[in-house]
Amino acid sequence: MTKPNDLLPEGLQDRLPAEAARITAAMRACLDVLGAHGYDRVRPPLLEFEAALVGRMAGVTVGETSAMFRFVDPASLRTLALRSDMTPQVGRIASTSLAAAPRPLRLAYCGDTVVIKASQLDPAREHLQLGAELIGADSVAAAGEVVMLAVEALKAAGLTGISVDFTLPDLVDTLAEKAFPLDAGQIEGVRRELDTKDAGGLKAAGGAAYLPLLYATGPFEGALAALRAVDAGGALETRLDALEQIAAHIGDAARITLDPTERHGFEYQSWLGFTLYADGLRRAAGRGGTYRIAGSDEAATGFTLYLDRLADAAPQPEAARVCYLPFGHDRSAAAALRAAGWRTRAQLADGEDARALGCGWTLEQGEPVAL
Amino acid sequence: MTKPNDLLPEGLQDRLPAEAARITAAMRACLDVLGAHGYDRVRPPLLEFEAALVGRMAGVTVGETSAMFRFVDPASLRTLALRSDMTPQVGRIASTSLAAAPRPLRLAYCGDTVVIKASQLDPAREHLQLGAELIGADSVAAAGEVVMLAVEALKAAGLTGISVDFTLPDLVDTLAEKAFPLDAGQIEGVRRELDTKDAGGLKAAGGAAYLPLLYATGPFEGALAALRAVDAGGALETRLDALEQIAAHIGDAARITLDPTERHGFEYQSWLGFTLYADGLRRAAGRGGTYRIAGSDEAATGFTLYLDRLADAAPQPEAARVCYLPFGHDRSAAAALRAAGWRTRAQLADGEDARALGCGWTLEQGEPVAL
């Protein structure tokens, strides 16, 4: 039955009932966790002026800001963009409409985002993004709250085997300034070779002193000890102490790993970045970190989950019992069943097959009778 | 603090916490009603190939199909459109992926839609659309179910004073064929004058016989009686009997009115259209009717609600109690409060003002103490 023009563009897809039910259940569970921890939801629009969105993404690489669909608005004759990320929108709201709200300001969001081009790692161009932003704080306490909140949200969505991978986005800058000096021209090369974990390249780039960082990775305690050994001069001491405090706050709620040189996707984070994983997911369930809001330069800490990805590993919500309602059924009995958590499907024509319509019961004399 | 590039494009807006909470509460309440009546949610993407979306909107006026933002997809080099309505997407899913699912097929949806140009009646260009489609049926029973479902959803969202205004989209065609003949060239003129309710224009357009229709409008019983008087030849009998049965099914759940010549917005409906109103709303809360799915020509009945509009009149959800969690608080006591429906906000820095952060209580020795 599928005709050519029924096909969807690459990276876009329909979510049919079973998958949509998983997404909806995961979304409600996560939003409820965010709400319970005092985060208030805001709803920014799908489209904004391109200049405003890009301006709010300062620090984000060109690759990210050029990831948006753009088009001219006949109403303003200005270029609009379809959001590829809601975080800059929440930053905008915090800096404008909610500029006068007391800090720390806790905001939550959930909505569709679209990128113009899929990445090698992820063929999807549409994502249902859900997240929380803690605005006015990027302290250890703030980071601990946000990481724990992300873990709790993933658990509420039914995910298991959750792990948090920490990174230190400004690690090279900090070490270059305080411990292992690099020329301005060398910094980018050293960052790149650390990113690709290429020991030979790292030496060639003048970063021999940074070699031990390549091995300070893996399960948290060992990697942290390795980092402390590298950090004889104490340049990283406050950061490493901070990681230790955050890890203590998480306790055994999640497995913790450390990959201090991982930069990908943390272009706008400041001292801390983290990636969230869970059993059954090939890609990250989400990510977060500390940053400064472009424009206002206010400190903030937040995370984003990709609900559509996450729903691949989330459990199927338990199906409610479905009762068929034949012609002339007792309408108040049907309403009572629905109020008690049943689903009903009413007869519309003669000769319907109630079982084929997904009904395991039928209403007879006001009572559900198994089919 | 608002800088020029923080302003949003015309017809697009942020929903701040109080409004976002009303929208979310209304959305959940409506979706729960749809789910309880056996409607399964599907999630189509924000973007589709323009040709596919327009092809699915056959019967819709040019004004509607040209209402979409369009842009070229670098991946396919084809034109994409940002959806302005989710109904054609649900029709597409029913005709393709779910073509083999038993009928009647009950589907629900909820998502953002955008039009390129605001209308005179509604300055918003973005709408959060929620609806239900009953696919494979456009009978009286189907219409009764769908109208009642819309009314129940509005009530669940907390709206009051709900009214349903019926119209008969193919009224002029039916009467022209069976009762008051018109030349092919006259039909459009008669429709237009009935639409503007211009008695003089109607006579001039050759539609003198249609004059009584202008007065068959208002509260259901009187308007129906007036229509029956016009319909001496019985051309409308089955339709009027159908309206009467639907009205009987609704009973006193909503006020019912009839405006048989209203066409605006019902360009793709077949024998029945309806508009939903509620106290406190300047514009319609939603609309629906019977139609045929473009492409497959399958009969269907459905409705759409505009959640963002509707939330203007929906009650503010009751605020949960918020408890401040000072440094070193009892974490399991805090978790127990959240599990019992409280919200918590944790201390992040010395000198915070718990009351300014919206907390009415603080946790002391594991117990909430009023501030």
Automatic annotation (TrEMBL), chains A, B:
- One of the GO biological process terms: histidyl-tRNA aminoacylation
Query: Per its record, what are the GO molecular function terms?
Result: glycosyltransferase activity; histidine-tRNA ligase activity
* Keywords carried by this UniProt record: Glycosyltransferase, Transferase
The UniProt entry, under PANTHER family, shows: HISTIDINE--TRNA LIGASE, MITOCHONDRIAL-RELATED, HISTIDYL-TRNA SYNTHETASE
Q: What is this protein called?
A: ATP phosphoribosyltransferase regulatory subunit
Q: Where does L-histidine bind?
A: 85-87, 129, 133
Keyword Membrane: yes or no? no
Annotated Gene Ontology cellular components are: cytoplasm
Where is the Class II Histidinyl-tRNA synthetase (HisRS)-like catalytic core domain positioned along the sequence?
11-310
